[in-house]
Amino acid sequence: MKNKIKNKIFNPFLHFFKNESSSGLILLSFAIIAIIIANSSFATTYNNILHTYITIGYKEFSLSMSVLHWINDGLMAIFFLVVGMEIKQEVVFGELQSFKKTILPISAAIGGMIVPAIIYALFNYNKPTISGWGIPMATDIAFAIGILSLVGRKAPKGIIIFLTALAIVDDLGAIIVIAIFYTSQISWIALIIGLIVFTCLILANRFKVKYTSVFIIGGIFLWVCLLKSGIHATIAGVLLGISLPVGKNIHEFKSSILYRLEHALTPLSSFVIMPIFALANSGITIDINSIGAIILTPVSFGIIFGLVIGKQIGIFGVSYILVKLKVAKLPSQVTKRHLYGASVLAGIGFTMSLFVSSLSFADETVLTTAKISIMIASIVSAILGTIIFKLIKLKSEK
Q1: Over the stretch 293-319, which tens digit does the pLDDT of each residue have?
Q2: Is residue 254 assigned to a domain?
Q3: How distant, in Å, are the alpha carbons of 151, 305, 352 from that of 177?
């Protein structure tokens, strides 16, 4: 009887926290809260908190960063660790296991990164703001899958798998771009030490070390090394994720370190870290009188057209060509309409786009313009994607 009562109480919560749509909803809520705070009498307090410095450690063995940097460089490393674990899981056992099976989402993701970057570059050619070309390349998996689960209830499973695989490849592409193009001056000593630590983690996996603490401690050392090297510290999360033991088969996977860590950290990443990130990075002061001027800037045009139009052209265009040439085929029960709807939803950049924008611009005015543009583009993509899937649903019901 007690178990039945417990199940009735806890199961809805467990279902909620496992649902990507709830993650996207919470993320959106915290972004709205941040905007409200930034445009209220608490704005000064909000900014003071974000720029308060926190020191961890002692004397020369200490790290001192602002709250905002601890969130973007520290907490987001855990988010990237989860991304790294998802990538490894998909490569070893999932949708990215077979190249033939994944040529469509992989190619679509590449198209969906290149075209938006080109569109942004065209609008910002020969301007200092060209550095933001990586902003419209990203897709926010939580929002995109969340919208799809809400409006595409009768959508075939194949389109959900396609969009998920696409977003994972998209994340991997964004990580590579951050590591190569959004890196400050490199400290080669710190980088070499970091590579030695990463090699040790790979060897620990190779020699079947079963202590999770070994990988966590190694991951912390790797994070510090990359932070000191000039390469963005969040890359340490990805490297740790792909170094974790995953087992040789699905049975071993269920008892692996990667499986245990992924199940422990995914709720933390989705429902704590990402909302905190949104709260810290979405707080933009909006002047209604200057919105028009902001939207009419090259940065805004590049981001909005890149995400809303570029993603559609890149993802749907590449997919259509590959299917037409019979190089790839659509997943089971998936139509071109479903594919187009998914390519529109991929224009929801939000989390990763905000993250790249914080690396791209030091100027506060340009950064605010970028953030507003990301939100506008993500909202437009979400609305258009919703309409498309609603129309598909209505047509299938006739």
Answers
A1: 777 899 999 999 999 999 999 999 999
A2: yes
A3: 32, 20, 12
- Tell me which residue has tokens 């972004």: 31
Question: What tokens were used for 28?
Answer: 């959106």
Residue 159 domain-assigned (yes or no):
yes
- The residues near 229 (Cβ < 8 Å, ≥ 6 apart) are 186, 187, 188, 190, 191, 194
DSSP 3-state assignment of 34? helix
Q: How many domains does the chain have?
A: 1
Mean pLDDT of 68-79: 88
Secondary structure element (H or E) that encloses residue 49, with its range: helix 43-50
| pLDDT tens profile 207-259 | 889 889 999 999 999 999 988 887 778 888 888 998 999 887 777 788 889 98
Query: What whole-number distance in Å separates Cα of residue 192 and Cα of residue 189?
Result: 5
pLDDT confidence of residue 100: 67
Residue 128: which CATH number? 1.20.1530.10
Residue type (1 letter), 56 = I
218 within some domain: no
Whole-prediction pTM value?
0.76
Say how many C-beta atoms besides its own lie within 10 A of residue 248's C-beta: 10
Radius of gyration of the chain (CA): 21
Considering only 29-33, 136-140, 144-148, 304-308, which range has the smallest mean pLDDT?
144-148
* Gap between the Cα atoms of 76 and 5, Å rounded: 37
Range of the domain at 76: 61-183+232-391
Q: Which of 190, 188, 189, 265 is nearest to 221 (CA)?
A: 190
**Which of the four pLDDT bands, split at 50, 70 and 90, describes residue 151?**
low
What is the rounded distance in angstroms from the CA atom of residue 62 to the CA atom of residue 72?
Answer: 18
User: How far is the CA of 266 from the CAs of 19, 20, 74, 258, 262, in angstroms?
Assistant: 11, 11, 16, 11, 6
Of 308, 266, 289, 250, whose CA–CA distance to 81 is shortest? Answer: 266
Residue 140, domain member (yes or no):
yes
Question: Are 276 and 29 in contact, with CB atoms under 8 Å apart?
Answer: no
Residue 13 reports pLDDT greater than 50: no
